[in-house]
Design a protein that fits this description.
By secondary structure, the protein is an all-alpha fold. It contains 22 helices and 3 strands.
Length: 547
């Protein structure tokens, strides 16, 4: 889709400013040594009468000249006589601040928590073919297609090795280009976030011509100077397009023409904003003003660092993408395998989820965590345990003569506990229907087109409580199934005196059908053990899902 978006506008790529100021070397002794004899004599006499150092008088003279240069260079912004910034400066600064407002949200998004995502997105504009290669590397299917079936560890290792090789193949020129894009946007964000109010608050709100002395705004003015001096070249068109297209609200629009129109309008505002930075910096003799402000001829704004970490973040993004893709691929494969095993055990074509408990029952991204585990448990209890397994187990529970009464109690507890789990699942499923206590509230909230934050939090809390109830059912079923397996193992293979003992009438229970009955109990044990394995693995799998 992005290839079809060709909204373009002429972006001025000239540097924000070029210093053409006639600045003496900051070393006052070198300046003094370059003076003619007559000027040295004049300075000596002034020093003699004022009882001050010659170099101090020379520096003061040069700074005074600079103050006059600044006043003449930006009329209406600075008063050299009072050493103050005028209302005209405040108006220019407000205009600069206001013209940058279009960047506030995009830059906050780009350099916020998803900074590494944005850098990868930006790199895709600069090196699209290389980005395609990385996307292929991060796709587990591409490796299994070439290499055949791989274990999770081998798949992860292969993908990370390929990723490392691909990152090394990025040319120095491409790295430099992306770094320049990131740096230009980073410093633009520093300027956009600059607290202009720390300077403007000293000027009258009515924007009158009242001046403010340099001393009053010295600290924030020097900080602004550092940011402005570090700007360098403006962001390129590719960088700006990436910046605005990184907004999901824009790219999720279905109409490409609408996206193109919106993007063009954003680029026009961006051009106006960057052009205002250039105008402000060309009007303002920055270095001279700051030397005058500090009273230090050798003062130079600090060139700030920024964007140097782009490649480390880029690498981290792709490494995390590989890890996530392999984990999701592994999860999907394990889930599919377990579902196939579950279908084979219960003899169903698919393990259908419960009608009212699914991954996203609300349609708002709030999920039911144990969808597959609880679906398997429900079908296992309804289709297998309550039918064929139940008939065999019931005979041994009723007619079996246990050596230990405790084993009979354990058999009864586990048997009835699994029956109770089936009942609890059905009851909770009803609660989740639109007529139920939980489902009714969720359905009502889901029908609201714009649910507020408190409503969303309520739904999230209800779903967490719902998951907790299902988790409790699963844990209880697991415990009872394990206990049942141990009792049945005791009946079939237990030894006298063991914790789970056999029956005193094991050899003739069921009469003439004893051998067949023992065989059926063996089948029940195998089914129960397979159900236990599947349920435990599904439970661990879904419990590992991120919140």
């Amino acid at each position: 889709m992005l290839e079809r978006i060709e909204a373009r506008i002429a972006i001025d790529d000239e540097p924000f400013f070029t210093e053409s100021e006639d600045l003496e070397n900051g070393n006052i002794e070198i300046i003094y040594n370059r003076l003619g004899v007559l000027k040295r004599i004049v300075l000596f006499l002034r020093a003699l009468f004022s009882q001050r150092d010659v170099t101090e008088i020379l520096e003061e003279s040069i700074l005074k000249r600079y103050a006059g240069d600044v006043e003449r260079g930006c009329r209406g912004l600075f008063d050299a006589k009072t050493m103050s910034l005028t209302g005209g400066f405040a108006r220019e600064l407000r205009a600069l601040r206001d013209s940058l407002a279009c960047f506030t949200d995009p830059l906050s998004r780009a350099f916020g928590p998803d900074k590494s995502d944005f850098i990868s997105f930006l790199a895709g504009f600069e090196i699209p073919l290389h980005q395609e290669r990385l996307l292929d590397i991060a796709d587990p299917e591409s490796h299994t297609h070439k290499e055949g079936a791989l274990s999770d560890s081998d798949l992860r290792r292969k993908a990370l090795l390929d990723l490392s090789a691909a990152l090394k193949d990025i040319s120095d020129s491409d790295k430099s280009s992306i770094y320049n894009h990131v740096r230009s946007l980073y410093f633009l964000s520093e300027l956009v976030r600059f607290p202009f109010s720390s300077i403007l608050e000293h000027f009258p709100q009515d924007q009158s011509e009242q001046a403010v002395s340099l001393d009053q705004v010295k600290t924030p003015l020097l900080e602004l100077g550092d940011v402005l001096y570090s700007q360098g070249a403006p962001p390129s068109e590719n960088a700006l397009r990436a910046l605005f297209l990184f907004d999901p609200a824009l790219t999720e629009q279905a109409d490409t023409k609408e996206i193109k129109s919106t993007l063009k309008a954003q680029l026009e505002k961006a051009w106006n904003g960057t052009d205002n930075i250039r105008k402000f910096m060309n009007v303002l003799p920055l270095r001279k003003l700051l030397k005058v402000c500090t009273g230090n001829l050798g003062y130079t704004p600090e060139t700030l660092g920024g964007g140097e970490d782009w490649f480390a973040l880029y690498r981290k993004f792709w490494e995390q993408r590989v890890e996530t893709a392999v984990s999701e691929y592994s999860f999907k494969n394990r889930k599919n395998r377990l579902q196939r095993d579950a279908c084979a055990l219960i003899q169903m074509s698919e393990i259908a989820p419960l009608a009212n408990y699914r991954r996203a029952p609300t349609g708002q991204g709030l999920t039911g965590r144990y969808e597959v585990t609880i679906a398997f448990l429900h079908h296992f209890l309804q289709k297998l345990f309550m039918r064929s397994m139940h008939r065999t187990l019931r005979i041994f529970l009723v007619d079996g003569d246990f050596y230990k009464s405790q084993n009979r109690e354990q058999f009864t507890v586990s048997y009835e506990g699994l029956q109770r789990s089936a009942k609890l699942i059905n009851e909770l499923e009803k609660d989740l229907s639109t007529e139920g206590e939980i489902g009714g509230v969720l359905d009502q909230k889901n029908r609201q087109p714009h649910s507020d934050a408190p409503g969303h939090e309520l739904m999230s809390a209800m779903l967490q409580a719902m998951d907790a109830r299902f988790e409790k059912i699963i844990d209880s079923a697991r415990d009872n199934l394990e206990l049942l397996i141990n009792v049945v193992k005791g009946i079939l293979y237990g030894q006298s005196g063991g914790r789970f003992d056999t029956l005193s009438n094991i050899s003739y229970i069921g009469g003439s059908e004893n051998e067949k009955l023992i065989g059926r109990l063996n089948d029940v044990l195998k089914q129960a053990e397979e159900a236990q394995r599947i349920m435990n693995e599904l439970y661990d799998l879904e419990r590992s899902l991120p919140d």
